[in-house]
Amino acid sequence: MPDFVERIGIAVSTNEPNRLFIGYSLPSNLPNRVSFYLKSSEYPAYTISDVFSKEDFYPGYSASYSGLGYFALDMEMSPTDPSIMYLGGYNLEVLDINTAVTKKFYSVTSSSNPYFHVDQRVFKTAVSDGNTYLYCGNDGGVSRFDYENNIMLSLNGTGLDNLQYFGIANSELIPEFHIGGTPDNGEIGNGTGNWLRYNVGTRMKILLIL
User: Is 191 helix (H, G, I), strand (E, B) or coil?
Assistant: First the structure.
């Protein structure tokens, strides 16, 4: 293992509880590139083995392995298939660790994607009625990925209050008009009787001049 890494993640499969997966990213010698390495350690020998690597890739938000680097890296093994690993960066990568092939790639296609937000922070899996579900905690809240049916669903809403505001402002002329700025979820306000949302990046303090 190198002495310095940008970001490190670990995962253990319920199918192979004595095998620890270690993923980490390193800066590349090429401009604006990063490299990702996945290794495993077997208990009780603690020998380190190479599993997968992706070197010198551009961590662009619209490409495979996008955003996998220093600011976002989470890993979770499938509870039903020991060859499947979920990798979270800006988007979601489903990797077959035996073949080094990306099985599925779920992209945040726009800043207003209603089902999946950016920057995956934590993954948890569950199995129900034969289907594998991946719960994705991200900067936009919580999403649920149905692996077998390739369906992403946002769990934000009623009963899940997870929206954080940096600042809220209202109008002196139109008291019912108020708007708030959120981290990574844009602006949300109500000025015309309907809720308006502009999901474009991080909004801090909000000022209304009307």
Answer: coil
* Mean pLDDT calculated for residue range 18-38: 92
- Describe the strand order of the beta sheet including 120-128 as a list of residue ranges: 120-128, 131-138, 141-146, 151-154
Cα radius of gyration rounded to whole Å, the chain = 20
* Amino acid residing at 124: K
**pLDDT for 110:** 61
Helix then strand then coil, % of the chain, to nearest 5? 0, 50, 50
What number of CA atoms fall less than 13 Å from residue 162's CA on the CB side?
Answer: 15
Largest CA-CA distance found in the chain, in angstroms, rounded: 71
Local structure of residue 75 (DSSP, 8 states): E
**Torsion 37-28-116-184 (CA) sign:** positive
